[in-house]
Write a structure and sequence with these properties.
single chain; 244 residues; alpha+beta; 6-stranded mixed sheet; 3-stranded antiparallel sheet; 6 helices; 9 strands
């Protein structure tokens, strides 16, 4: 929750600095332009647009913090908020080009050779609308666990290969108490990567929060919590690991 609030405060400050204080050097691209190129930019309109984007993003972060961190008891997924943030960023980046007189003339038509200047912007926009959802989809996939002759293999991002001979203990638990993410992803109900428990222990998790059962594996590396597509399948996984 506090991470969202801090991010919101930073965004509010950046938006105010660009929009009201005239800190236009914070606008990427504009700060590296030649003086004559800067003179052709409607910097007041662009600064207002960037400021509104920052205010909008900050508001979304505060909404997420309020819904998921203040105990309102609302079961609202965060995905729509991040989709809204992505859409806001894409629209702002594209709209900002209209205020660049080096690309568009006074009548709103592209200047000769301006298409080349738009190529980097188009590339960034394509990456935003493809790479981000692609990563989202990747992290939302169910955990796959396979067994080889010598090791248990957890597939995917942050995956691990756990040799059977290094497994010290296997425990079936229900709803592990996690405090916060230290290096990983939380997409919908899925948690993947490095987290810290409420007891202060650093663990590696591959969990679906909609599934209560989880297998804890203590080995020579960082303790692992993992579950699969259902409570029954997770309990079967626990029994299979114990046999190795």
């Amino acid at each position: 929750m506090w991470g969202f609030i801090i991010a919101a405060l930073i965004l509010f400050f950046l938006g105010f600095a660009v929009h009201r204080l005239g800190w236009h050097f914070l606008i990427s691209g504009y700060n590296t332009m030649k003086r004559e190129d800067k003179a052709r930019v409607n910097i007041k309109a662009m600064a207002r647009l960037i400021g509104l984007m920052c205010y909008g993003l900050a508001t979304i972060f505060l909404l997420i913090a309020a819904i998921h961190g203040l105990g309102f008891g609302l079961d609202i997924p965060v995905e729509p908020f991040f989709v809204l943030m992505l859409a806001l960023i894409v629209v702002t980046l594209w709209r900002a080009q209209k205020y660049d007189g080096n690309i568009y003339d006074e009548d709103g038509h592209l200047r000769p050779g301006a298409k080349k200047k738009l190529v980097p912007v188009v590339v960034v926009l394509i990456l935003l609308v493809t790479l981000v959802p692609g990563l989202w989809f990747w992290f939302s996939q169910p955990t796959e666990v396979t067994f080889t002759d010598t090791a248990l293999v957890i597939e995917g991002s942050y995956g691990e290969t756990v040799p059977y001979e290094e497994i010290e203990a296997v425990t079936l638990t229900y709803r592990p108490s996690l405090d916060r993410r230290t290096n990983g992803a939380a997409v919908g109900s899925r948690l993947t990567g490095h987290f810290r428990t409420t007891g202060g222990e650093d663990v590696l998790v591959f969990l679906d929060r909609d599934i209560e059962a989880a297998v804890r594996i203590d080995w020579s590396g960082k303790p692992i919590y993992v579950n699969v597509e259902s409570n029954e399948a997770t309990e079967a996984l626990y029994r299979e690991v114990r046999l190795k």
